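Example (one chain per record):
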Amino acid sequence: MQITREVTLQRDGQNVVQDDQCRAVSGTWYSEYDGLTIDSVSRIDIDHVVPLKEAWRSGASEWTTPERRAFANDLVHSQLIAVSAGSNRAKGDKDPGNGGCRSSRTGDVSAGRGLCHSTAEQRMPLG
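Predicted structure:
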C-alpha cells in the first residue's frame, strides 16, 4: 500500500522531506539488516519483519482476512520497516532461523500476534 510505505519512510527516516503529495523525496534511513545508512529513497524497500509466508506457516493461516490484512500493514507493532533494497531482496521470505535477517523487532512482532517461533529463531542474536 503506497500510503503505508510513505508513513514507514517518514517514521524510520531522518530529515525526511516530502513533496506536495506526501511522498518522501529525500532523507536518510538506517537499514537494520545490513547496517547501511541509505540516502536515496529509491534504494529503500519496506519490509515485513516477519515475512507474510512465514507468518502463514506460523499461525496466520487461522486468521480472518481482515486480521491478515491488519498484520500485513501493521505500523503499531513495527511489522514494517525501512531497509536497504539489497538486504530485503537477499532475505526474501526466509524466516530468521533459515537464513533470513533478524531485526530487533522480530520477536515483538511475532509475540504480539501469537505467532510461533522456531527453536532456531529463539536462539539467534538480534541485529
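Caption: The chain has one domain: 2-123.
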